[in-house]
Design a protein that fits this description.
This protein has 5 helices and 8 strands. The protein is of the alpha+beta class. A hairpin with a 4-residue loop joins β1 and β2.
Length: 178
C-alpha cells in the first residue's frame, strides 16, 4: 500500500474537526464540491465546469515541497462527520504575511463551519505570520461576516478575476494583525 507523504504541515485539531494536509484520496470529494457552481463562483481560482485533471493537479501542488500555498482539508471523520467538508489555505507572502482563503461544501453552509475553521487557523498561526489578509466577493456577505467575526478589519474595495465567472468581480479586502 502506498501512503501519501505529508510535507511538514501542521495538523490543527478542534472540537468539531481537524484541519489536515490534503491526501490524494481527497480528490473525489474535492471534485464533487468544487465542481458545484455555487462553490466555484465564490472563488477566484476554481473554473466551472471543472476540467478533468484540475483537482489532481491542485492536490499535487498542495503536496509539493516547494509549494507557496498550504492547504488543509476540513475533516470531520473523528467526530462522525465527513472526510472533506471544505478547504482552507494560506498563501505565503513576504514579510511574515499570508493570505487566507477557504470554501465550504454547500451541505455545511450556515453551520458555523467556516467561522470555526478560520478561527482555528488564525489561532494556530501555523506559519508564524504577523498579518493575514483575505478578500471576498461583494456578493458573498456571509464570507465577509466570517472574517469580521474572526477579528479581521475591513481595508477597502478592490476587484479580482474569477475563473468561473470569466470576469472581474468587486471584492472587499480585510486584514488581521496576529
Amino acid at each position: 500500500m502506498i501512503h501519501d507523504r505529508i510535507v511538514n504541515q501542521a495538523v490543527i485539531e478542534t472540537d468539531r474537526f481537524s484541519l489536515r494536509p490534503l491526501r490524494r484520496s481527497d480528490q473525489g470529494l474535492i471534485e464533487l464540491y468544487a465542481g458545484d457552481e455555487r462553490v466555484a463562483k465564490m472563488t477566484t481560482s476554481i473554473p466551472h465546469p471543472l476540467p478533468p485533471g484540475t483537482t489532481e493537479a491542485f492536490i499535487s501542488r498542495a503536496l509539493s515541497e516547494d509549494r507557496v500555498e498550504d492547504v488543509w482539508a476540513i475533516d470531520g471523520t473523528q467526530y462522525h462527520g465527513t472526510e472533506v467538508m471544505g478547504l482552507i489555505s494560506l498563501v505565503r507572502m513576504d514579510r511574515n504575511q499570508s493570505e487566507i482563503g477557504y470554501w465550504i461544501a454547500p451541505a455545511f453552509w450556515n453551520t458555523g463551519l467556516a467561522s470555526d475553521a478560520v478561527n482555528a487557523l488564525v489561532n494556530a498561526n501555523p506559519l508564524g505570520d504577523r498579518t493575514y489578509f483575505a478578500s471576498v466577493f461583494q456578493d458573498n456577505p456571509a464570507s465577509a461576516r466570517v472574517l469580521i467575526h474572526a477579528g479581521f478589519e475591513y481595508l477597502g474595495d478592490a476587484e479580482t478575476y474569477s475563473l468561473s465567472r470569466g470576469s472581474n468581480v468587486p471584492t472587499w479586502t480585510y486584514s488581521r494583525k496576529l
